[in-house]
Amino acid sequence: METTSLSIKHIAQMYCVNGKHFADLYRNRISGYAEWWESELCCGFYFNAANIGPYMSLDETCLSNGEVWTFLTNKDGHGGRGTLAAAIPGTKSDEIISILINAMDKSVRRRVKEVTCDLSPSMMLIAAEVFYNAHVVNDRFHVQRVYNEAVDEIRIDIRRRLIAEENSRDKSVPPVTYSNGETMRQILARSKHTLMMSQNKWTDIQRHRVNILFKHHPILKSAYNLAMELRHIFNAKISPTKAMGRMNEWYEKVMALGNNNFRSVIKTFRNHAPTILNYFRRRATNASAESFNSKVKIFRSQMRGVRDRDFFIFRLVKLYA
């Protein structure tokens, strides 16, 4: 029960036991859930100081019905026991900061050297205020996604313009098809994920389609090349100072495109420059937190949703804390 993330009824069926009866028996008698709730979760949140280490991750995930919880996890737990340090309902920075500061002594907070998180202002504020001695690091994949979304906006704008033109033209004239047998509207619709991939991962069909796209819409080719350049910057093993110089050069190239979709991207990058550049200290990402979130979601789906929220947190604690 406390070593595998399967539903109680599923485990009971494996041993030919009545699932509902065993679930009630485990919850109310065997597990010690009532005592745990009074000592650990009666305040509305869970915290375990023993799982605070030098390298932490901060992220939020939805449990059920839009109810979002903030999870503080320890990278050294590697997704197993010792991973979950805190589970707090909501994402309000003021409330979470107050809870964590009151739950930890300064010596425990000083122990943390690095906290990774996404570009959420709330998560960054929590990390900076609570772990005042740590470097706050923005996850590189969230940073890259901000730019990739701007590239995709260009693709969507072009497709919308083509749809408007098709609606106004003579329907008796068939649309132009290209050497791969697709119309430009189809090429734009089917190239979304291809534009997020590296060229060496393209299939022959994808390469043919993208070559047609780039030939007729050079703005997408330029934007894609800059996306790959950003990826190369993050892949390079360089110091934060050198990374800052390369990022500034990259900003100039992006601004030279003259597309409004990228202005907000550059503004976001400049506003978060210190936390983005902190990645180059240890090349730390928020992958461990994303992995933990996926485990929570899989566990939730196996239990067919979260009917008893507190008992669901109890099982997570037994598995991952």
UniProtKB/TrEMBL annotation:
InterPro entries: Transpos_ISL3, Transposase_DDE. Residues 57-316 form the Transposase IS204/IS1001/IS1096/IS1165 DDE domain. This is Transposase.
